[in-house]
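Hey, resending since the last one bounced:
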Amino acid sequence: MDLVERYLQAVKMWLPAKQKEDIVAELREDIRSDIEEKEAELDRKLSDEEVAEVLKRRGRPLVAAGRYRTQGVLIGPVFYPIYLLVLRLSLIPFLMLWTVRFVYQLFTSTLGPGDSLASWLGPLSGRFWSSALWLFAIVTLAFAVLERVQARTG
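The structure tokens again:
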């Protein structure tokens, strides 16, 4: 049974803190009943290798613990449609501002004889994608915080 206890300790490390003891006790009983069934079938005590086979069927400790964890989400089903709407609505002014910026820069800057259009658009393009990523990150973070607050307050 030492092998079973080591397996349970490894599973316990990956379990949710509040439910560790209950889940390990339940898992211990399940494993014991599996071992007892196998012993009754063979009409003898199981060897360590056979016990290891019983444990292998349950999967690696991380996989076994994963069966008892709830699926975490960054933005839940309640806020997700609103999140998508806010992303779409924030995209419109974002694109409008960048269009205005592009047109302004196009009319106010001059390209020198050695400059190519690509050398002029390169930094502008990088700033565009950087700004788009920041917009996405800020909206996502705001909704993730909102989701956590809502989950805690019910």
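The radius of gyration is 29 Å.

Sorry for the duplicate.
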